[in-house]
Specification:
single chain; about 120 residues; alpha+beta; 3-stranded antiparallel beta sheet
């Protein structure tokens, strides 16, 4: 993972600026851990954010070729240097993902610690 982007992501997750949600990158003004990274990518001009009515926010390209509401779009994955769209790691002999940890109720601080250690 790109070290500068990782540092920005860790800072954002620990900042208290983002409220946490599950099941979507962003919904109702709240974010999952991957949604925080997508928001940073929007601020960096790497990807775009769109939303219809009360649905979840979708991140990706304007033409809709590379969009996602649940995992990282390819553009954000490539920009950040992460190996997968839903980054995985091994914990206690089990394959785990950041999205799953987020949806299981891990706090952003706990997820930041995982990112720091695993990526």
């Amino acid at each position: 993972m790109d070290s500068d982007i990782k540092a920005q992501w860790l800072q954002a997750l620990r900042s208290g600026e983002y409220e946490q949600t599950s099941g979507a990158l962003e919904h109702g003004g709240k974010f999952c851990c991957l949604g925080v990274l997508c928001d940073l990518a929007v601020k960096a001009g790497v990807t775009e954010r769109s939303q219809e009515a009360d649905g979840p926010v979708v991140y990706g390209t304007a033409d809709g070729e590379d969009t996602s509401a649940g995992i990282l779009p390819d553009g954000v994955k490539e920009w950040s240097g992460l190996p997968q769209r839903n980054p995985i790691f091994i914990e206690d002999g089990n394959v785990e993902s950041l999205a799953a940890k987020n949806d299981m109720g891990y706090s952003f601080a706990q997820i930041a610690d995982l990112i720091e250690r695993e990526f």
